[in-house]
Design goal:
The chain is mainly alpha-helical and about 140 residues long. The protein is about 70% helix and about 0% strand. The protein contains 7 helices and no strands. Helix 1 crosses helix 5 and helix 3 packs across helix 5. The radius of gyration is 16 Å and the shape is globular. The protein starts with a helix and ends with a helix.
Length: about 140
Amino acid sequence: MLMLLFGHIGVTLGVFFGVAFFIPQLRTIIDPTYLVIGSLLPDLIDKPLGMVIFSSTIANGRIIAHTLLFPFTLFLTGLYLYNERGDIKVLTLAVGSIFHLMEDKMWASPRTLFWPFLGWRFRKNPHQTGLKYLLKLFKRSFREL
């Protein structure tokens, strides 16, 4: 869990600072904090929702926030806020979320990635859900420290 956390953060920031090396203005426009939050946002939403709250029905940690619809909605909201207030924070969250989907290789799960266009249901994953899932994550996190 901790490894995946740092993977999402590290890859996203690595790409950002790599691009910012060639386009230095990005550092003044984009706040890396929102990029990091965006890179974690799909898991922060879907893991508790799909694997704990709806563990008896959905039992999957890659649901709504792991679809293209999620960052697209963030992007449209961000465009609106940018046009109205000049605020780029939500656009930055959308970019971070797109990076998350790429890092999770969501193209390998087209039914989830293109939800709801390929069907309304998410694939059920009956392994490691609910309280057992949380306890396993908790134990694994402490072992990695």
